[in-house]
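#onboarding

Welcome to the new folks! Below is a worked example of what a typical request in this channel looks like: someone posts a single protein sequence, and someone else replies with the predicted structure as tokens. Don't worry about understanding the tokens yet, we'll cover that in week two.

Example request:
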Amino acid sequence: MICIAGPCVVENEKILSRVAEVIVSLQQRFPDIQFYFKSSYKKANRTKYSSFQGIDRQQALKLLQDIRMEFRIPVLTDVHESWECEEVSQYVDVLQIPAFLCRQTDLLLAAAKTGKPVNIKKGQFMSPESMAFAVEKVRSTGNQQIWLTERGTTFGYERLVVDMTGIPEMKKHEVPVIIDVTHSLQRPNQDSGVTGGKREMIQTIALAGIAAGADGIFVETHPSPPTALSDAATQLPLDELPLLIERVKKLYDFMKTLTVE
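Example response:
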């Protein structure tokens, strides 16, 4: 089972370290879960120009590298343009392709050519079946380390829905499939220009995804979500992460005992 967890964006060293400490404690408690620390070193797709996009680029990457070295945990971050990939790959273990960019051929190829695992988020506008072409682009470089992440599908202007049948459909591409349990609950395109969400449904989405066959979860978590500088409405309070992981792991283990007819 895979668990990708961490604060939405790099805000400061204190928050990164606090979250990393909890994740490492969970890794020790659940040694058969592969944990990845996640934080975006930059948010390049904020709705409003005035929204927080990140701290200094090099400082953010160095902080992620410090987390990787100090806590001995693999780190994942987003890349948005092809020229970033080689540099960013020197600081982290996994490169993530944001959902809005999952069809960008040059970006997918550049990420793949680093030799790092590539986590491709399914676009809100994409069918599960069509993600085969994104997988194909990465595989064309010889890189076979590919994950797909479900994060909801656009339903009207201000809502996402999660079609759980998409999980077994994407597993047909013969890659691990992860359920993003926080971005799936966003309410985008609000009049305020600040994305809303329903964090109280995180456990529901997580358990439903695992029941549908997901190989793991993606969850953004923060010590104080209301004060988070990005995705404040959907990040899971850090103190609730252990219980979520415990419940998800129990269901994951149970699902493995079932025999599909």
